[in-house]
Write a structure and sequence with these properties.
By secondary structure, the protein is an alpha+beta fold. The chain is 30% helix and 23% strand.
Length: 337
C-alpha cells in the first residue's frame, strides 16, 4: 500500500486553488447571483457559489489520481461520487477521499464569515469505510473579500497537526501554532449548542441554558456567565475549538429529530459526514470529540448520514460539561436513561 502522505501536498495545493477561485467569484459576482439555488439534493441545498469549486476539484484530483486511482465523494458532485481517473474501477482505488468544497456556503456567499474547504482521506474499504479511518485531513479557510489573512490546517494520523497563515496581499505563508483552550470551565468563555434553523430552537436553547446553570450557575445581575457563537460551518466550529476561541460546542440536531416529528415538522438539516471529514486535525491537536450520546465520534464515509457531535477543548471541560449535557438529554427522553 502506498503512503497516504503522498496525497497531502497535492491536496493542500488544490485547496489553495479552490480558495482563490471562490474569493475571485465573490469579488466578481453579486451576492444575489452567488446565492441563486442551483440544485436541491438529499443532503443539502446547492447554491451557485458551490459550483465554483466543483470543476477545480475534479480536475485537481484527476491529476493526483494518475497511476493511483481514487474514489472521490463530495457534496454537490453529480451522483455523489466519481472514480478518478476516468475509466478506472472503484475496486482498484486504494483511497477514498471525502470533500466538502465549501463548508459554510451561506456565510461566505453573504460575506458574513469565512467558509472552509474540508478533505479527509481514508483507505478504500468500499461502502464500509468509516470517518474514523481517515489518515489525512486538510481544512483551508476561504476568507471574506475584505479579509487578507486566512489559515490552512492539516494532520496525518498519529503525527500531530500543523497550520499556516496565508497573506493574500503579500502572498507569504507563515507557520502558526494553534492551541485549544486550557481553561477548566466554560465561565467567561464561548460555548454553544448549535441551533441554526427554525423548528426546535427553543428545545436546544433550553438544553444550552441548563448546561450553563449546572456547570457554572447563574451570572450576577447585569453580568454574563458565558457567551455563544452560532458559526454556521462545522469546519469553522472545529477551527474555533482548535484556535482556543471556543471551549465547548454541541451539534445535537439528529438527537432532536424526534421533537421535530412530534411537532409535525419534516426532518431537519443536520450535520453530515463530509462536514466532519477534517475532524482528525482537531483530534491531533487534543480537542476531545464525541458523538451526541458521549460515545466515539464516527459515521459512514458518505454524504447523507445525519451526525451529532460534541467538541470539548480539553478533558477538564469535558468532565465539567458532559454530565450536564447528557443529563439534559435524558430528562427530555432524547437519550436512553
Amino acid at each position: 500500500m502506498s503512503d497516504a502522505r503522498l496525497l497531502l501536498d497535492p491536496i493542500r495545493r488544490l485547496h489553495d486553488r479552490i480558495r482563490d477561485a471562490v474569493v475571485d467569484a465573490c469579488i466578481a459576482q453579486s451576492t444575489d447571483a452567488l446565492a441563486t439555488v442551483d440544485a436541491e439534493e438529499a443532503s443539502d441545498t446547492i447554491y451557485r457559489i458551490d459550483r465554483v469549486s466543483e470543476e477545480i476539484l475534479i480536475d485537481g484530483l484527476a491529476e493526483v489520481a494518475r497511476g493511483n486511482p481514487i474514489c472521490l465523494m463530495a457534496e454537490g458532485l453529480s451522483g455523489g461520487s466519481v472514480v478518478l481517473p476516468a475509466g478506472a474501477n472503484e475496486g482498484d482505488c486504494e483511497w477514498r477521499i471525502l470533500v466538502d468544497p465549501i463548508d459554510g456556503t451561506r456565510g461566505i456567499m453573504y460575506q458574513k464569515r469565512s467558509a472552509w474547504i474540508l478533505t479527509g482521506v481514508a483507505p478504500n474499504h468500499g461502502a464500509g469505510t468509516r470517518l474514523s479511518e481517515i489518515e489525512i485531513a486538510v481544512q483551508t479557510e476561504i476568507p471574506l473579500v475584505k479579509q487578507h489573512l486566512c489559515d490552512q490546517l492539516w494532520a496525518v494520523k498519529g503525527e500531530g497537526a500543523h497550520a499556516v497563515r496565508y497573506n493574500r496581499l503579500s502572498r507569504e505563508t507563515t507557520p502558526i501554532a494553534l492551541r485549544p483552550s486550557r481553561a477548566e470551565t466554560i465561565a467567561h468563555g464561548f460555548s454553544s449548542v448549535s441551533r441554526f434553523f427554525p423548528g426546535v430552537r427553543d428545545v436546544l436553547a433550553e438544553i444550552d441554558d441548563e448546561i450553563v446553570r449546572a456547570t457554572i450557575g447563574d451570572a450576577p445581575a447585569g453580568k454574563a456567565a458565558c457567551f455563544e457563537d452560532q458559526y454556521l460551518s462545522t469546519g469553522g466550529q472545529l477551527y474555533e475549538l482548535m484556535a482556543g476561541h471556543d471551549r465547548f460546542i454541541a451539534d445535537i440536531r439528529p438527537v432532536v429529530e424526534s421533537v421535530r416529528a412530534a411537532r409535525g415538522l419534516p426532518p431537519g438539516l443536520c450535520c453530515h459526514p463530509y462536514d466532519l471529514c477534517s475532524m482528525l486535525v482537531a483530534q491531533e491537536l487534543g480537542v476531545e470529540l464525541t458523538g451526541a450520546s458521549g460515545g466515539r465520534l464516527d459515521a459512514p464515509f458518505d454524504l447523507e448520514a445525519n451526525v451529532g457531535w460534541v467538541g470539548y477543548a480539553n478533558a477538564a471541560i469535558r468532565a465539567s460539561v458532559e454530565p450536564a449535557l447528557l443529563g439534559a438529554l435524558r430528562r427530555r427522553g432524547l437519550l436512553d436513561a
